[in-house]
Design a protein that fits this description.
Blueprint lengths: L2 E7 L1 E4 L3 H11 L5 E5 L13 E3 L3 H10 L4 H8 E7 L9 E6 L1 H14 L3 E5 L2 E7 L2 E7 L3 E5 L2 E3 L8 E4 L2 E4 L11 H7 L5 E7 L2 E3 L9 E3 L22 E5 L2 H9 L22 H7 L7 E6 L6 E5 L7 H8 L10 E3 L2 E7 L17 E3 L9 H19 L13 H12 L23 H11 L5 H23 L1 E2 L2 E2 H4 L7 H6 L9 H12 L1 H17 L18 H10 L4 H5 L6 H20 L1
Helix pairs in contact: 1-9, 2-9, 2-11, 3-4, 6-8, 11-12, 12-15
């Protein structure tokens, strides 16, 4: 006998991972009743892999989520155990915040955030069917026989759809370690015309911290002082835990090579496509035979656990092979494995089936967000969840869809890449995917996006007022620097010199300021990179013309500096006829297209000169 819910919700979110959390909070905080259906209410925003947030390009996304009023940055600041700003020796476009989080505390924080929201109902269950009439979704049915109605459904199922876990010769159903898969929903989606593919990802072993020889390893400390992720975090005071660096070696590689026939990846038992940029250790050994070692970072999973995450060693090799290989790594000679690494295959829906709002092109009011859209990473999932939630809000208010432009956010680059080009492997964000990355820095996400967050009622008046005051301080300081002089130059001009810094102006009593360190850094960046920033803004207007430019037959892509290996492989295989054609090849970024266009123009000028 089928049960029916007595309530009709404004939105139903299936899944409570990183995408589901952001999607449900965005809708509920706008005053609409939301139902979140998840298989385990104690596993909210669980970190299945590394308990880390941010990193290259991903840190940019988290700051964008925060500027739009999402929760991920706040959660990270509240539960982080180590904070680092990566790439500080490089240009500001690639500075990227990263934090290790306490895995258990992060889950508890997000669970409390959902439970504390008055417009949100958290319910244990497994959705097995979407309800569709006249090509529009109107609810879901669960394995438990319940029917829930809503005109808006967001699917954020992660790796659970028909999940299959592999460890060596063993394989068994599972959505994550020790958790069952979601069965039934895939069939329902296919019945309604949604295409699904099989993807794969993996995770490393976890070690007992008491069994590691820490004294012989290289310590990696956090920044002092740490930089918060959230613009809403006033003070970040945290006792930071260290990570440690070690490496694989030839003995490790020999063990792996000798047992490749027992790897489900190389024995053909895994059919799903895995992430290119987070390969298994056996994949790295095979594809990079000349590389004598690979970095391994040993990272704590929390303050109150002995579990150490072996970053750089994802694997689905048999347990005895994992054990033998790990014990040949410096510092791990006597390490005790608490949990073995594994690979997981799952169903995903190619995102070319979606609009930029993440609504299905085929089924109205059905949205997809997170790993179901062929992506990898907590940050990419959370960004999609937030954007799906915001678009549901727009529909509930009878307004047009909310779509960011590629010039506004990495989040927009992510979604545009997915729905325009698709992907044949789990998509991961990189700074190189954004052609205008100097405009999309991690430090100016508030300037780019906080206005939208305030419009959606996710950024409160006090926070928005503080943002406006911050921008006023920065603008006034820039104007002041244009009026003060030293040795004939204004301080604005003086600061353009590579050897000068904002801090040196203060230390030499040439300028006084009440700006925070981050605000001062923004001022310095705007001045030092003024020409480049202006150039990128003009390139925004030029880029559309490049798509129509023909690519001569026989173009040698190996001659083009700056294009990655993945892009060159696909360009050489497909040999596109035009920039527009190349733009439709999965994995080819707009940055790659610009480099091709420049190469064509240079060759054309050479031909004319002959």
């Amino acid at each position: 006998m089928s049960l029916s819910s007595s309530s009709k919700y404004a939105a139903i979110v299936v899944g409570a991972g990183h995408a589901g959390v952001e999607a449900s909070l965005a809708v509920a905080r706008n005053g609409f009743p939301v139902l979140v259906i998840t298989m385990d209410t104690s596993a909210i925003a669980r970190m299945s892999c590394n308990p880390a947030i941010g990193g290259l390009a991903k840190g940019h996304i988290v700051r964008e989520i925060d500027a739009l009023g999402g929760e991920m940055g706040l959660a990270t600041d509240a539960t982080g155990i180590q904070f680092r700003m990566l790439n500080k020796s490089k240009g500001p476009a690639v500075w990227a915040p990263r934090a290790q989080a306490d895995k258990q505390q992060y889950e508890l924080y997000m669970k409390h955030a959902l439970e504390a929201e008055k417009n949100l109902t958290l319910r244990r269950g497994q959705a097995t069917e979407i309800l569709v009439k006249d090509n529009a979704c109107y609810g879901v049915r669960t394995k438990e026989g319940e029917t829930f109605l809503s005109e808006h459904v967001i699917l954020t199922t992660g790796t659970f759809l028909q999940g299959l876990i592999h460890v060596g010769e063993e394989h068994f159903p599972g959505g994550r370690r020790d958790e069952p898969p979601a069965v039934g929903l895939s069939d329902s989606l296919r019945q309604h015309g949604v295409e699904l593919v099989r993807f794969k990802t993996g995770t490393p072993p976890r070690l007992d911290q008491k069994s590691i020889r820490w004294e012989i390893l290289e310590e990696q400390k956090g920044d002092n002082p740490p930089s918060p992720f959230s613009y809403r975090t006033k003070n970040l005071k945290v006792e930071q835990l260290s990570c440690y660096l070690t490496h694989t070696n030839e003995k490790v590689h020999e063990i792996i090579r000798a047992n490749l026939q027992r790897s489900p990846l190389y024995a053909g038992r895994i059919t799903g496509i895995g992430p290119r940029y987070c390969p298994s250790v056996e994949d790295k050994v095979v594809k990079f035979p000349d590389k004598k070692s690979h970095q391994i970072y040993l990272e704590p999973e929390g303050r109150d656990t002995n579990e150490i995450y072996v970053n750089g060693f994802p694997t689905s090799l048999p347990k005895d092979v994992q054990d033998a290989a790990l014990h040949k790594i410096r510092g791990l000679e006597s390490a005790e494995i608490l949990k073995f690494g594994y690979a997981i295959e799952y169903d995903a829906a190619p995102p070319t089936q979606l609009k930029h709002s993440l609504e299905s092109k085929k089924i109205r009011n059905l949205f997809f967000a997170g790993q179901i859209n062929c992506t990898s990473g907590y940050e990419e999932a959370a960004a999609q969840g937030l954007m799906a939630g915001l678009n549901v809000v727009r529909k509930l208010c009878g307004e047009s869809e909310f779509v960011l432009d590629r010039t506004e956010a990495y989040t927009a680059v992510l979604i545009d890449d997915l729905v325009t080009c698709g992907t044949n492997e789990p998509y991961r964000m990189f700074t190189s995917r954004a052609e205008f990355r100097l405009l999309l820095r991690q430090d100016n996400a508030d300037e780019r996006l906080m206005f939208y967050g305030h419009q959606f009622n996710l950024i409160d008046e006090k926070t928005f007022a503080a943002f406006n005051e911050r921008m006023d301080r920065i603008r006034k300081d820039l104007e002041t620097l244009k009026t003060k002089r030293f040795h004939g130059d204004t301080l604005y001009q003086y600061l353009k010199r590579p050897e000068q810094s904002y801090k040196s102006l203060i230390n030499n009593n040439l300028h006084s300021s009440c700006l925070s360190d981050e605000e001062a850094h923004r001022v310095e960046t705007e001045i030092k990179y003024e020409g480049y920033i202006a150039q990128q803004r003009s390139e925004v207007k030029k880029f559309s013309r490049l798509e129509k430019k023909k690519i001569p037959a026989g173009t040698n892509y190996d001659e083009i500096t700056g294009i990655g290996r993945e892009a060159k492989e696909k360009l050489k295989k497909i040999q596109p006829e035009s920039i527009g054609h190349a733009a439709r090849i999965p994995g080819i970024s707009s940055c790659d297209l610009s480099l091709i266009a420049v190469h064509i123009e240079k060759n054309a000028r050479k031909d004319q000169a002959r």
